[in-house]
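Methods: example folding runs. The two proteins below were folded one after another, and each record is reproduced exactly as written to the output file, sequence line first and structure-token line second.
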Amino acid sequence: MVAGFFTWSENVTITRAIKVVGRMGVMISSYGIYRMILRYGAVDALRGKNLLSPLLYMAYLVLGFLSFMWSTNPGFSALQWFMTLQSLVFGFYFVKSLMLLDEFFPGHAIRLYNLLGNAVFILISIFVVGMYADPDTFFRLTHGGEEARLGGYIMNPNELGMLAGVGVACLIFDIYRNHHRLWTITKLIVIFYALYMTGSRSSLIGALLIILFHIKQSQNKRLKTLIIAGILVVAPLAVYKVILKDGDSSRLEEVMSMTGRLPFWTALIQEGLPREPLLGFGFMRIDYKEYFQSTHTYPGKMTHNTFMQVLMNLGFVGLTIIIFQVMFTLRGFMGEANEKKLMLIGILIPVLINSFTEFGIFGESNYGIMFYQLLIFSISFRSGGELTSRQKLHLQVAAKRQRTRTPGQAFPRGGKSVQHMC
């Protein structure tokens, strides 16, 4: 699903096929896996919790749908809205499948952070190999060809850096549980190398924050010492090379203006917002034309700040909804068990930092939105408690079917017995 957001070919037809057919196929397969788990011996008795988080997100999407009526480009708004809905449906069944496994097969080895971490590693490895095998494709030249950043035309380097940050946040938990520790450290090294080659300042800051966050939480003094030592060795060079760009004074000015973003945001508030302050220009639209351009700023099709994006495309009404949505999502994180809470916050850190400088969680369709939707659904379900008669019968039939297939094996494997569940 993440790979479906990349531009794997400059051929428009191939790109559209991957994005439409590929992502639709994965979305449908997520429902298929959900149904397979039910047939294998689970019942969907999950109930809702922290409902204000998903409900406010749905309110945001409803407002976005209504905005087609006043959008300055209804076709573009509709395309972006349906792609966001697509990843929402995928995330719903993906998280539900994992939670049903936890509920009915508690001995299973599948972990969300391991799945995401390995997915990121595989994708990042393609870019690392590609930067040597085909640098013209996998590098993007910026600043008049002076700087080569990993990503190429395939993916915006800052977005690729955010993906690397998510990988770091997830794979750290494999170190906590001592899961193939040497191999996990190797994966983290590859991901950090790719992060460095993207030249993404915001993503580097996000990765450092993730590490510092885990240092604070960890009770393992030896692990803390090793991590701090690694940061002291790597961080100064990374900050000097990536953030300060070798101390170049002209690039330092660029840092201070956030690569021209600050004057652009100022112009949006002063010139663009007064035109449509209440309900905005329509879902993912920031002006009456395709690009917003002030006298003293570059032309932009998106705001490079997800909260500013909502303000421009859905006005103050939309901004109010998403501010409360984020607040209730964070509140939901705090109510989870410690390990899950750490995982959710760890994944949110790079995604949220990226939201202040790029597409973000409420911007144009990107995998940051999908990660955020996964986090929302991760706090939206709880065990349903007592089963209905129909659900108990389903478990009994599934258990009988399973015993027929694998004689002598208890059902479910590593999970609760049918007698216990019924």
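Second run, written to the same file directly after the first:
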Amino acid sequence: MDLSIFLSSILFISLAYKLYQRLRFKLPPGPRPWPIVGNLYDIKPVRFRCFHEWSQTYGPIISVWFGSTLNVIVSNSELAKEVLKENDQQLADRHRSRSAAKFSREGKDLIWADYGPHYVKVRKVCTLELFTPKRLEALRPIREDEVTAMVESIFRDCTTPDNQGKSILVKKYLGTVAFNNITRLVFGKRFVNAEGIIEEQGKEFKAIVSNGLKLGASLAMAEHIPWLRWMFPLDEAAFAKHGARRDRLTRAIMEEHTVARQRSGNTKEHFVDALLTLQEKYDLSDDTVIGLLWDMITAGMDTTAISVEWAMAEVIKNPRVQQKAQEELDRVVGSDRVLTEADFPNLPYLQCVAKEALRLHPPTPLMLPHKANANVKIGGYDIPKGSNVHVNVWAIARDPAVWKEPLEFRPERFLEEDVDMKGHDFRLLPFGAGRRVCAGAQLGINLTTSMLGHLLHHFHWTPLQGVKAEEMDMSENPGLVAYMATSLQAVPTPRLPSHLYKRVAVDM
């Protein structure tokens, strides 16, 4: 009896609060929420597509209730500008789930920090120290090493007598580049050797990453209904164990770098070295240094591989684009050397192919939600303090009001009109915009363009045998990042002299 009274009271309070919100504020329209759960059971798994469908019914700004939390989704460029530029400061906080709060030590990093003095300081470190053109250029040999290692690996696998003419799983090779590249840039370590064998620290690193994903996914409904959390308590011990394990590995690597620096007197360009030498100058706690290093790992590892896989799927689906990109590469780079990042300015079409892939397939289609730290108005509607605001960059990049033939993969559109993709043009936002724009956007663009360029310069690509280009599955998996639902399998055919398929190894 007591429990039923308790649950009835909670239901009454919930409904009363909803009614109060609706009477006090002019909220955006949206699907009708159910008591307690809101719209949670109505949301289809691929959320950005679901929200886009709802926007066709209710308009470009909609209210969606995740349990008792109001989420506002905007789906056109004018509203995105209101969120990310005109009301940027009031909408620059972060909604932290319980797992995000644990992983980030309550926002001591950059990604999950609320907007305030800490965020401004850490952002300054990223902009003025870590992601400068000078440092990105200094780290270029690492990127080129890993991309040529990928080329060598594909060449070796597709030219063995048993495999000639057979397809490869493209994601496998892209994932290796992304993994090795990010661990070397951040930690100065290539955890996987030339034979593809992973060392002990690398095994531990991978175990920590997969355990973090598992822990993050373990909390469901209670995340959205705060007063239900007593029924779904956080496994404090598991999170504490995970945090200690992550810190132990990171501190061991930090200590190795400190010892090496003291021995040689030289500071290397890796992010771990940079942060250790800047720690005092910027008054960064160990939690913040560790949080920043892991922010770079999580933000940079999957997104690049995802972007290149989508780009390759589109190029294989559109042979005209592949031919045009290869003609440009043959003209500029030729067949007696390999592509380098220094060639990019002379390869405008290749850059447009990368940009068009990021338009149609942004790796984080909804960006991370922005949380209102004050009551604001967007599109004439009230956004109460504490609400979450999502920008559906996937929908904006396919909006027929601002894009001609939006669903067509046509890189030429960016030769006809130069559209910025680093947060200044609100039609194209693969890296976000405003105060929370991705700090590593240029690094992501460089690596995506380099991987794509090498794959197209070294190989001609055709679909899996028996699959017509127009039959390729171009749907997405559910989740925060948009993996292809069916991993790309394609047939590579070498198109350059065999001596150009060697890894250009560099030790740094």
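Comment on the second run: The longest strand covers residues 61-66.
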